UniProtKB/TrEMBL annotation:
High-level lineage: Bacteria, Pseudomonadati, Bacteroidota, Bacteroidia, Bacteroidales
GO biological process terms on file: proteolysis
Protein name from the UniProt record: Tail specific protease domain-containing protein
InterPro entries: ClpP/crotonase-like_dom_sf, PDZ_sf, Tail-specific_protease
Annotated ranges, domain Tail specific protease: 337-545
Superkingdom of source: Bacteria
Pfam families: Peptidase_S41
Molecular functions per Gene Ontology: serine-type peptidase activity
Organism: Parabacteroides goldsteinii dnLKV18
Length: 570
């Protein structure tokens, strides 16, 4: 009899071990369609409960650890019925309160931009009892702890912190597991689950993502479960961020930089007329560079630039094609090699040269000569010029009396050294709505409502009377785009240039395993009438782009066009 008990005891231990085995030991080849489906649902249930269950939202459980506990139990289940039974039992561990927030109604919420995308919890055919349990959580009161921070009242949850007016939200208490020296797939899957659910519930532009966000999750589960190294893991993070199509979302660290390359040829490259064109050479401190401004790069180390584009775009999150090509241009001549063999076109002549590279941190300037312009200058007696991207501080005169004023936003404003450009009241003769915002909800994750519009200017009979021309291009991003919207409210103003970066709104950092932090947009930005700015960018009134000919001649054709428009004024 005692032998029977021993065998029974061993079987129990074996079953318990099998049910709880560490996901880090899951063989990659086992990650079949059924397992992917199980993990796909688990990610959604885990994320929904993280933000919707009051006790979990308030930090009563270590939610990462709870995921690590349930993941190996769910992943290998072969039948839908058994999977749902296991998930239901797991969900029932966390008591569901009976209190109900009746103020939340699918049909009576005012000023709604987007409702939570949670209709999947109603699919009882797929989820069985899990559906009922999740539906019970939907309208629960999610009470939070009020904190006074610097005089401001914040709504404090375990993983989120909202200001009282919900115009600010921060992700917090997400373990970054920075001690990890190697990545196991339970941590890589946790990273995917975190990213997916943050976008699902707190990203204002989820509805603009080209792919179905649910399909993105399904596509990447096997990739994250199969990861073999920290670099592969970080590249996968870049790939999934690329699916969001938001220029704000990126990942920069030492491993990624090493992968891109730590050396660079001493030229700037921009994408002009569908070509990579040399627009700046910074060889003052170095051996002369054989490339010249206006050269069109065709091949690098024998590789056609089109092939390089296809490779690099997989890892660059970009709101539109203009900013994608901006980012590829920035990376194009990075390498680990001491020399690059470059084939290029100059005056219709095909040339090639070996170009030396230098450790990029040792390069003493960035080749963007526009950055060294002053904040303010008079181009001539009729034209004033304001450049918020200047590296230098300065002052904008209180009164400007010219036929025209050019505000150049083609580089990111220097907020550290320059402040007064933010208001620039002299431009406006009255107050006017400039920007409309949306914000997420602390009580209903996934809900985004229109909040306030910012107002620019005030009553001013002595406002600027000349033509205001705002210059933009793919370098106009985020705060620069916001300022373009404000300046465009000035009377007799126009926007001149080309597609901007289409990345608007405030961002906060999200921690991921491996000591990784990625920026996530949490604020939607729109025109006062509700028109989109994200991905579209700030649409110019007059379209104008540089040409290869103009670059070769050393001209700033966009600025020249602005001066021409001002000089046409009688």
């Amino acid at each position: 009899m005692w032998k029977i008990y021993v065998i029974f005891f061993i079987l129990c231990i074996s079953c318990n071990y099998e049910g709880r085995r560490d996901m880090s030991n899951l063989p990659v080849e086992e990650c079949d369609t059924i397992q992917i489906s199980n993990l796909h649902l688990l990610c959604k249930v885990w994320g929904f409960m993280k933000y919707y269950h009051p006790d979990i939202a308030n930090g009563m459980y270590d939610w990462d650890n709870e995921l690590f506990e349930i993941m190996p139990r769910v992943v290998n289940i072969k039948s839908k019925k058994e999977r749902n039974r296991v998930l239901s039992k797991w969900i029932n561990k966390y008591d569901i309160p009976t209190s109900c927030n009746k103020s939340l109604s699918d049909t009576q919420m005012p000023n709604v931009k987007t409702y939570p995308d949670i209709s999947w919890i109603e699919n009882k055919e797929e989820l069985g009892e899990v559906s009922d349990l999740l539906l019970n959580m939907k309208y629960l009161e999610r009470n939070c702890v009020g904190l006074s921070v610097g005089g401001d009242l914040y709504k404090d949850y375990c993983y989120l912190e909202f200001s009282e007016d919900e115009k600010k939200v921060f992700f917090k208490n997400e373990n970054d597991y920075k001690e990890l020296k190697e990545i196991k797939n339970k941590y890589s899957l946790l990273a995917l689950f975190r990213i997916w659910n943050v976008i699902q519930y707190y990203y204002p532009y989820k509805y603009l993502i080209d792919k179905k966000w649910d399909d993105v999750l399904f596509e990447y589960i096997h990739k994250f479960a199969s990861v073999k190294s920290l670099l592969e893991y970080k590249l996968l993070i870049l790939m999934v961020l690329t699916e969001v199509e938001d220029t704000h979302m990126n990942l920069w660290d030492e491993d990624i930089q090493n992968w891109i390359g730590n050396r660079k040829a001493l030229v700037n490259v921009e994408f002009v007329e569908n070509s990579f064109v040399v627009t700046g050479v910074y060889d003052k401190y170095y051996k002369k560079v054989p490339l010249e401004i206006g050269d069109v790069i065709l091949k690098i180390d024998g590789r056609c630039v089109q092939n390089i584009i296809e490779e690099k775009k997989m890892y660059i999150s970009a709101s539109n094609n203009a900013v994608l090509m901006r980012e590829i241009s920035l990376q194009l001549l990075f390498t680990d090699k001491e020399k690059l063999h470059i084939e290029y076109l100059r005056n219709n002549q095909l040339l090639s040269d070996s170009v030396e590279t230098y450790y990029y941190k040792s390069i003493k300037n960035n080749g963007n000569r526009r950055r060294y312009k002053p904040l303010f200058e008079y181009i001539d007696e009729d034209v004033a010029y304001v450049y918020p991207g200047s590296l230098f501080s300065g002052k904008i005169p209180d009164q400007i009396n010219t036929k025209g004023l050019i505000i150049d936003l083609r580089d990111y404003p220097n907020q550290k050294n320059i402040k007064e450009y933010l208001e620039f009241y002299h431009l406006y003769n009255e107050s006017k709505e400039s920007v409309l915002f949306t914000y997420g909800s602390s009580t209903w994750p996934g809900l985004f409502t229109y909040s306030y519009t910012t107002v620019v200017g005030k009553k001013n009979e002595n406002s600027y009377k000349g033509l205001v021309i705002i210059l933009v291009d793919e370098g106009t991003q985020s705060h620069g785009e916001y300022m373009a919207m404000r300046y465009r409210c000035a009377p007799n103003s126009i926007i001149l240039g080309s597609t901007t970066a289409g990345a608007d709104g405030g961002v906060v950092r999200l921690a991921l395993p491996g000591g990784i932090y990625v920026p996530v947009g949490i604020q939607g930005v729109y025109y006062p009438d509700g028109r989109e700015t994200q991905r579209i960018g700030i649409v110019p009134d007059i379209w104008m782009e540089p040409t290869i000919k103009g670059i070769r001649e050393g001209r700033d054709e966009v600025l020249e066009k602005a001066i021409e428009l001002i000089n046409e004024i009688e």
